[in-house]
Amino acid sequence: MKIKQIKAIKATLDIVCGKWKAAILLVLVDKTLRFSEIKARLPKVNHQTLIKQLKDLERDGLITRTKYDDIPPRVEYTLTEYGKELEQLLKDMMDWGE
């Protein structure tokens, strides 16, 4: 395997392989969800960990965070086009894990 290929694999793993990142991305496939909805779908994730993982995914350009000025405040998360490119990879990882 070439060094360039190894670096490409490492870059992918760095982005999607936080403990909860792949799971978060999977729940956002074809859906826009609020923080509480993501938390409900991933009940074992710690509140602070979820916040950090969402920030990391946003920083990496895989999700967008939209804040609305409603009362009470509302924040929604959705996959970016870049994040949607990972859909098949995530499903393959899920299939392989099963």
Summarize the structure.
The protein is of the alpha+beta class. The chain has helices at residues 3-16, 21-28, 35-41, 47-59, 81-84, 87-97, and strands at residues 33-34, 63-68, 74-79.
Provide structural commentary.
This protein is of the alpha+beta class. The chain is 58% helix and 14% strand. The chain is built from 6 helices and 3 strands; from the N terminus they run H-H-E-H-H-E-E-H-H. The chain has helices at 3-16, 21-28, 35-41, 47-59, 81-84, 87-97, and strands at residues 33-34, 63-68, 74-79. Strand 2 (63-68) and strand 3 form a beta hairpin. The two termini are 27 Å apart. The mean pLDDT is 90.
Sketch the topology as an H/E string, one letter per element: HHEHHEEHH
Number of H- or I-type helical stretches: 6
* Rg for CA atoms: 14 Å
The profile of the biggest β sheet is: 3 strands, antiparallel
Task: Give the DSSP E fraction (strand runs of 2 or more residues).
Answer: 5-15%
Structural class: alpha+beta
Mean pLDDT: 90
Percent in helix? 55-70%
Global shape: elongated
| Strand segment count | 3
Oligomer: single chain
Layout of helices and strands:
Layout: H1 3-16, H2 21-28, E1 33-34, H3 35-41, H4 47-59, E2 63-68, E3 74-79, H5 81-84, H6 87-97
Antiparallel strand pairs: 1-3, 2-3
Task: For this entry, give a set of tags.
98 residues; 6 helices; three-stranded antiparallel sheet; alpha+beta; 3 strands
